[in-house]
Amino acid sequence: MAKENLLYSKDHEWVRREGDTVVIGVTDYAQHELGDVVFVDLPAAGKELKKGDPVANIESVKAVSDVYAPVSGKVIEANAKLNDSPELVNQDPFGEGWIFKMSVEQASELDELMDLKKYEEYLKGIAGE
Amino acid sequence: MNTLPKLIFELSREGKIGVGLNEADVPEEPAVDPELLRRELADFPQLSEVEIVRHYMALAKLNYSVDAGFYPLGSCTMKYNPKINEKLAAAEELQAHPYAPHDLVQGNLEILARLEEWLRELTGLAGFTLAPAAGAHGEFTGMLMVRKYLQEKGDPRRLVLIPDSAHGTNPASAHFAGYDVKEIASSAQGTIGLAELRPHLTPEVAALMMTNPNTLGIFESDIMAVADALHANGSLLYMDGANLNALLGVVRPGDLGVDVMHINLHKTFSTPHGGGGPGSGPVGVAAHLLPYLPVPRVRRQGDGFDVVFDDPRSIGRVKNFYGQFLVIVRALAYLMTLGRENVGRVAEDAVLNANYVRKRLEGLLDLPYKGPSLHEVVFSDSGLPVKTLDIAKRLLDYGIHPFTIYFPLIVHGAMMIEPTESESKETLDDFIAVMGTILREAREDPELLRQAPTRTPVRRLDETLAARKPVLRWRKGESL
Question: Are B383 and B288 in a shared domain?
C-alpha cells in the first residue's frame, strides 16, 4: 500500500492526487473505528463542494458518519461498487474501498492536509487521550 | 427459558381448529361477489385454542421491560411510568371526539391549558405549543420558529451550530428546517464554552442547538455566557430538553438565556413508549418568539377555555388537532401526583443514583470525561481486554438489560448508564455487583464475554449480516 504518497485529514480521510483531481477514501483507522460498514450513501457526480462540506454517509453497525470534502471542488465520480459491496470500505480502505473522486479548485488547500508522518503522529495523540 | 418458541406456522397441523361452528341453518349468501372470492384457502396456521394461547404466552415471556427488571437505558429511552397515569389516560370521560364543540370539552381544554402552565413554570419560558408529536418533531417546530423570527427581522441566516456530542436528530431537524449544519467540537471537558463557540460565531449563525445536561451527563456550565455571546451576535439558543430529567424543578432553562426548547413528555413526564410512539414534544419559547407558536392554541377565557385557530404570524399547524392528547394527560397526571413541592426530587434522586453508580464503578472502568455527572455517567472500554459490546451482551446473561452503548460518539466504546430516580439502592447494588463480576470475568476469561450471551434463547446475532442481507420473511419449508 503506497500510503506514503497520500495526504490525510483530521477526519481520517485519505486523499490521493491524480493530476488535477483527487480520490478520497477513509483510513484503516477510520474503518476499524466504524466497525462493519453496511451502507454507503454516495454523492451524485457534479455536486459542488466547499471544503468541509459533508459529501457521503457511511453507515456501520455502530453509527452513521459523514465523509467531508477535504478541499473545494466538484464531485466527478463516486465508487458505485460500494452500493452492492459496502464491506469494501472495511476490506480494502485504501484501494477498492475508495469513496469518491473530485476536482480541486485551489491546489493550495491540499497543503493544509497532513502527510503520513504527521497523520501517524496525530493518531498517536488520539491514542494517548 | 433458553430456547426460542417455534413460529406459529411451524406449529400448525392440518385439520386442527380452535373453534367449531354449527352448520348454518339459513341459506348461505356470499357476502361478496363470488368472482372476488379466493379459489384456494389462504395458508393460515391451524391450531387448537390452548396451543395458540400457549404460543403467545411463550412469546410474551421473552419480553424484557422496565416492569420486569432494571433498565439502565434511563429516561432518554424510558423510565418507570407510574400506573396511575395509565388509569387516568384510560378514563372514559376524556375520550372526546376532536371535532366536539368546545363548550362540551372544557375539561379536555383545561388539561391542555394546565399542562402548558406547568411547563411554563418549570422552564421559565413564556409560552408553549403542545402540538408536536415527538422530540424530533419538536426540534423541527422550534427551528421553524427560529427561522420565521429571523426572516421577519430581515436577517435570515444560513447556519446552525451543533456540538459533536449532540443527538443525531438535532442536525436532521435543523437541515429539514432549511439550515446548513456545522458541527463544533466539545472541549477536553466535554462541554461547549466561549472558546469552542467563538471561532464559529459568524453573522451567518441562526442558532446553536445545545443539549443540557449534554449526552455525557455533564451540565453545560458556560451556558449563560454562551447565550449572551449568541444574542450579541443576533443568534438564538435552542436547548434540546431530552435530558430535562436532570434539571426538573431545580433549574429553569428560561433563566439561563434559552430562547427555544423542546421537552419530551414521553421521557421526562412518563408515558410508556417505544417502537415509535406515542410521543409528545412540546416546544417552549421566550417572549420574543411567542407570535410564531403553532396553532391551534388553547387559551383561558374568563372561567372557561377557547381555542385560537388563526394567528397571522404563527408558523401554522404542525399536527392535526391538538397534539398527542393522552400523552399530555399522563404528563399532567404525573406532575399533579408529584406536586410542585416534590418535582425537584425527580432530578435530585436521578442525579444521586447516577453519581452512586459512578462512584462505585469509577475504579473499575475508564471515565474519559471527569466533570461532575448529573443524571447519567459515561464510561469507556479503554484499557479493558474486551469491547463494550461484549460487556453489554454478558449483562444479558445476568438478566439485566444493557445500558446505551457506543453513544455519545465522542467517547470510544461508550457505556452510558442512566439509572433514573425510580431505582432503589438495592437494585443499584445488584447491578454494580453484576458489573464487578463481568469485569472480573473479562480479565480472567475474556473469551467467555466474546461468546456472550450464552443463557438467552438467541445467542449473539450477526448484526452485520442482518444489516447487509436482511431476511424479512419466513417461507414454508425453510428453517430459521
Answer: no
Per the CB < 8 Å rule, is A62 touching B406? yes
Nearest to A69 by CA among A17, A6, A13: A13
Domain of B351 in residue numbering reads as: 344-466
For residue A36, what is the domain's CATH number? Answer: 2.40.50.100
- Alpha carbons within 13 angstroms on the beta-carbon side of residue B204 total 10
Q: How far apart are CA A21 and CA A23, in angstroms?
A: 7
- Distance between CA atoms of A37 and B467, rounded to whole angstroms? 9
| Residue A75: domain span | 3-123
User: Which cell is B289 given?
Assistant: 418568539
Residue type present at position B30: P
Task: Give the helix, strand, coil percentages of chain B, each rounded to 5.
Answer: 40, 10, 50
B186 and B42 in a single domain? The answer is no
Beta carbons of A38 and B468 less than 8 Å apart: yes
Number of residues written out for chain A: 129
ipTM: 0.72
Asked if the C-beta of A50 comes within 8 angstroms of chain B's C-beta atoms, the answer is no
Note the pLDDT tens digit of each residue in A3-60: 889 999 999 999 999 988 999 999 999 999 898 999 999 999 999 999 998 899 999 9
pLDDT confidence bin for B237, thresholds 50/70/90:
very high
User: Is A129 among the domain residues?
Assistant: no
Please give the DSSP secondary-structure letter assigned to residue B366. B
